[in-house]
């Protein structure tokens, strides 16, 4: 005679509880495995980054000409016009650079004397150099009341010191991997002969100045 096995409600509840504990265990194991793989992947990226250690791009001002620097006395407004050439170099042998949102402007004694001049985005390969030419123009820009005094003082010394500045966002490229955006700030100091009306120039290639670059 066959035996009839009857499972009590208590037995069923115990089995369901066992299945739930197994499911939770599997979930924890899957989560641990995923976390380990993610950590290894991020560690690999960090290791590659530390080995390559990308160097910041180098800039130098090769040429600058000032065509206009007119001050209206009342109110103190300035009209200006400059033409310049910058040399941008990528010193890295394994890292490329994307330049996004690059713009240039000129300043004089801490006062911006031209509007921002945007430069089209471009990619710079390993050990590559690019010439960047730009026309900087200022129209009725407000300046401080001390501006005429600064100009008169520079006319006395016959030297005009201008700062050409560039702001951009750059991305590093290693193989097929591209980093996030980093802010780039460039400051170039150029000293020009100052005549009785406007600066006489341009600054030649031999007299070009190195620029300070901050990433």
Task: Provide a short characterization of the protein structure.
With 215 residues, the protein is α+β, with helices and mostly antiparallel strands.
Could you describe the 3D structure shown?
This protein has 215 residues and is an alpha+beta fold. It has two domains: 1-53; 58-214. It contains two helices and twelve strands. It has helices spanning 9-52, 147-157, and strands at residues 58-72, 77-89, 96-108, 111-112, 117-119, 122-124, 129-142, 159-174, 177-178, 182-194, 199-200, 209-214. Strands 1, 2, 3, 4, 5, 6, 7, 8, 9, 10, 11 and 12 form a twelve-stranded antiparallel β-sheet that branches. It starts with 8 loop residues before the first helix and ends with a strand. The model has no long low-confidence stretch (mean pLDDT 80). This is Late embryogenesis abundant protein LEA-2 subgroup domain-containing protein. Keywords: Membrane, Transmembrane, Transmembrane helix. It is found in: Membrane. InterPro entries: LEA_2, NDR1-like. Residues 86-188 form the Late embryogenesis abundant protein LEA-2 subgroup domain.
Q: Residue-averaged pLDDT, rounded? A: 80
Largest sheet: 12 strands, antiparallel
Sequence of secondary-structure elements: HEEEEEEEHEEEEE
Shape: elongated
Distance between the ends: 87 Å
Oligomer type = single chain
Tally of extended strands?
12
Number of helices: 2
Strand content: over 45%
Q: What is the gyration radius calculated from CA atoms?
A: 31 Å
Residues in helix, %: 25-40%
What class, by secondary structure content?
alpha+beta
Give start-end ranges of low-pLDDT stretches. Answer: none
Number of domains: 2
Protein name: Late embryogenesis abundant protein LEA-2 subgroup domain-containing protein
GO cellular component, one term: plasma membrane
Pfam families: LEA_2
Subcellular location: Membrane
